[in-house]
Design a protein that fits this description.
Layout (H helix, E strand, L loop, with lengths): L2 H7 L12 H25 L4 H10 L2 H5 L4 H6 L3 H22 L5 H30 L2 H6 L1 H30 L2 H26 L15 H13 L4 H10 L2 H15 L11 H30 L1 H13 L3 H9 L4 H31 L4 H41 L1 H8 L16
Helix pairs in contact: 2-3, 2-7, 2-9, 2-10, 2-13, 3-18, 6-7, 6-10, 7-18, 9-10, 9-14, 12-18, 12-19, 13-18, 14-15, 14-17, 15-17, 15-19, 16-17, 16-18, 17-18
């Protein structure tokens, strides 16, 4: 290990105000996520890949987030969270540059998918380290209070990705007449920016006395089993898993088809929007609404606790999906109506999703293995997104957009049922809770 790596791994008592690093850390966490989840879908749709193939293969890219709990315990046992955060950010920046190089190739679909897999694996591992660092650096009340902040900056990265970069790809395509070249430029810009963020974090992330490898066992396999099995010995684990897997079953399908729906021609049931329009209305106004919903949700949970707000958040998560049924039925041409509908749905999604985030924190809060247990929670969340998303393109092509969105609304039923079985500690998340 180099001297620089050793210095990154040495815990000290350097503590910083959370505002100095949480915004940038979660902005960085969002960039590769949005590249895998959204930019890949828009790019493949622009380059002629079918809804079925785009939804199936981009959903498979969630697999690293699904299986990351299998290697999360090793991050507890080897190195510090700070070291892993910085090292992985440099790797992600380099991988985004590789996408820029492979987009113009004749075999672009296979080549870019392979590099997206590298981005996804690195990003999933980065999430483990970043979320673990967050749990180590903050008290429980701070964790709940900063849910809205981390969500806000994660969403801001989405504005940059699904808003500005999608808009830029459309504008560059108009200027160059070459959609592949436009996307290559976009990913080159993204790569350079992410490498700068990695450098910034190598300087500003605090060094924590608690950020040290776990001493659970000298045998890494034994340590892995100790950490992993402890999660599944929790009381009520079946209801926990049911909630983690089912809460987003409707949204998982919706997310994969919203952009194809907006891009497709009206003759096939779409809205025939341009990349630029999607970047503005969905990637900017919609994400701002998503951010506001997350901020309000985090503030209300810190004030009243998750238990009192759960059912309001469940309703906010699922009821606004009806707007896509109406958009598919009416196919309005007025951009104000389309934008307003997107803002309403995203506002509800942002508010409701806060419940999911805080619940995962509650599940991981107790015991010495917070990082690994939170990673296990997010792994099940990713599985709950990946499996429904894989088949959403095929379902849409069989049903058409209008019936597909009706199907999405019906899929809220198992999500609501899962919420009825979970147990939430009294006042969890409130600022008055003791750390």
């Amino acid at each position: 290990m180099t001297k620089g790596a050793q210095s990154m791994d040495t815990p000290t008592s350097t503590n910083r105000n959370p505002w100095s690093w949480i915004p940038s850390l979660y902005f960085a966490q969002g960039i590769p996520n949005i590249a895998v989840a959204t930019l890949s879908v828009v790019m493949y749709k622009n380059l002629g890949i079918s809804n079925t193939d785009a939804a199936f293969y981009t959903s498979l890219l969630y697999l690293p987030w699904v299986i990351k709990p299998l290697w999360a315990p090793f991050l507890e046992l080897r190195g510090t969270k700070r070291f892993w955060i910085v090292a992985l950010q440099y790797l992600i920046g380099a991988a985004l540059g590789l996408i820029a190089l492979t987009v113009p190739a004749p075999f672009f679909f296979q080549a870019t998918l392979a590099v997206f897999w590298l981005v996804a694996f690195s990003s999933a591992t980065h999430d483990i380290a970043a979320d673990g660092f967050y749990l180590l650096a903050l008290s429980k009340p701070q964790q709940a209070a900063f849910v809205g902040v981390r969500s806000t900056f994660f969403r801001l990265s989405m504005i940059v990705g699904s808003g500005f970069l999608v808009f830029l790809a459309g504008r560059l395509a108009d200027m160059t007449g070459d959609m592949a070249k436009a996307w290559a430029i976009v990913f080159a810009i993204l790569s350079g920016g992410f490498l700068l963020v990695a450098w910034f974090h190598s300087r500003v992330l605090p060094r924590l006395d608690t950020d040290v490898p776990s001493s659970v066992s000298s045998n890494p396999w034994s340590g892995w089993w100790t950490v992993f099995s402890a999660f599944f010995r929790q009381t009520g684990i079946l209801s926990v898993l049911g909630f983690l897997l089912l809460f987003r079953i409707a949204e998982a399908q919706l997310l994969k088809l919203v952009i194809p729906f907006m891009l497709d021609e009206r003759e096939v049931g779409g809205l025939a929007l341009t990349n630029e329009q999607i970047g503005v209305f969905y990637g900017t106004f919609g994400i701002v609404a998503l951010t506001v919903g997350g901020l309000v949700g985090g503030w209300l949970v810190s004030r009243y606790g998750l238990r009192k707000l759960l059912w309001w958040m469940v309703a906010a998560m699922h009821v606004p999906n009806v707007v896509f049924v109406l958009l598919a039925m009416i196919q309005p041409e007025n951009l104000g109506i389309i934008g307003g509908a997107l803002v309403l749905e995203q506002l509800g999604y942002g508010f409701g999703f806060t419940a999911y985030m805080v619940y995962m924190m509650m599940v991981a809060a107790d015991g010495p293995h917070k990082t690994a247990h939170y990673a296990i929670c997010t792994g099940f969340m990713a599985l709950g997104i990946m499996v429904p998303g894989m088949f959403s393109g095929w379902i849409q092509e069989q049903l058409g957009y209008q019936n597909f969105f009706l199907w999405v609304v019906i899929c809220a039923i198992p999500s609501i049922a899962a919420c009825a079985f979970i147990k939430i500690r009294q006042d969890f998340g409130r600022k008055t809770e003791q750390a």
